[in-house]
Amino acid sequence: MAIVTGSRRTRRLRTALAYLALAALVAFFLFPLLWILGLSLKTRAQTFADTPVWLWWPTFEHYADVLFRKDFLKAFLNTLIVSFSAVLLSLCVGVPAAYAFARFPFRGGNALFFSLLVMRMLPPVAVLVPMYVILSDIGLTTTHLSVVLAYTTFSLPLVVWVMRGFFDDLPVEVEECAWIDGATRRQAFQRVVLPLAKPGMVASAILCLQLAWNDFLFAAVLTNNDTQTLPVLMAGFTGGDSGVDWGPMTASGVLVILPVIVFSFMAQKHLVAGLSSGAVKG
Q: Domain ABC transmembrane type-1, which positions (predicted)?
């Protein structure tokens, strides 16, 4: 009896330590977000107070200042345009390419697939200069299309990698049943394979959206005042005679990350299914 009681206490202690470790880990990752949220709800005097202010009445003046700025709304619209365009273009090209890699083995296919992954591993600054030269020669700099193409360059290998693993796990017998019913390969792909591949496509879309939405480097080089995105606009809060304007900067930061968080929570079921069925097994 004493042995059983001791083993129960040991299991409870291990469980409590595991939950304590998870809580500490969650607090560690959430602390920067909570700190930014707190700064966005403080006045300038509270932010620069000699003694840290832990309890205060929140103010939304910084959010009002940011939301009523014309350049913020324009930058928000630009970010929506380039981000969702890059996601759509990456999916339209990457999903058929991943299907081809999974269903049509050919000589050199693995080498080509590996070359795509190598492109994703390259640091963005390594391709920034040649990409700028090419886009400048064809007159696409400072346009939305230039940023979309730049984002697609790094999003496309990610889509191909995730979706190829998903298509590899999808039984080919599903398509064969559609062929028997008289469907062509293209019809089977559109009407059977793509609906089953929706979780993988949602997972790929979220990963590509995060990449495009948060990018600063390409947007800073390839845009101007009319086409700049939110990360570039936020960089403007770090200069000036008065130093860093922490209130508007943190408020804009919260507004920037909020749409991606909401979209990720809405598609959480598809995100988990897509990553576990494709990227992990593949």
A: 76-267
